[in-house]
Write a structure and sequence with these properties.
The protein is α+β, with helices and mostly antiparallel strands. The protein is built from five helices and five strands, in the order αβααββββαα. Helix content is about 40%, strand content about 25%.
Length: about 130
């Protein structure tokens, strides 16, 4: 189950996608993610980031009924991250977001109200 660090990592990656015109594919250093998420930068946190990406790759969303934008589906299932990997030479992360999920966030009126720095400061019982 994703925990607070997972949520912070995902929000940072989503923010970067938004800053780059809602790109489905991101190429980013692990150091940048950890630095901007307020995490440590030792080997344990590099592994934790990879664990987080695995978690988000395995999260599935099941929706039945009407979406907020008026498009009707009988049933719709999709994930958050389709794939991720680390380039051998550059050590950069390549992350591919699920197109349907990203479009739901992009068109949402609620995501625009979130402030990343405020979310990072929230306390959570899950670590």
């Amino acid at each position: 189950m994703p925990t607070k660090p997972d949520f912070v990592f995902l929000l940072y990656l989503l923010m970067r996608s938004q800053q780059e015109g809602w790109k489905e594919e991101l190429l980013i250093t692990r150091y940048e993610v950890l630095e901007n998420c307020g995490s440590g930068k030792d080997q344990r946190w590099y592994k934790r980031l990879e664990d987080s990406l695995n978690r988000w790759e395995n999260v599935r969303i099941k929706f039945e009924g009407l979406f907020y934008n008026g498009i009707e589906y009988e049933k719709l299932h999709f994930g958050i991250i389709d794939s991720w990997g680390i380039h051998k030479d550059t050590k950069k992360l390549e992350i591919t977001f699920n197109r349907k999920w990203l479009s739901r966030i992009k068109d949402s009126t609620y995501y625009k109200m979130l402030k990343f720095e405020a979310v990072k400061k929230l306390r959570s019982p899950f670590v």
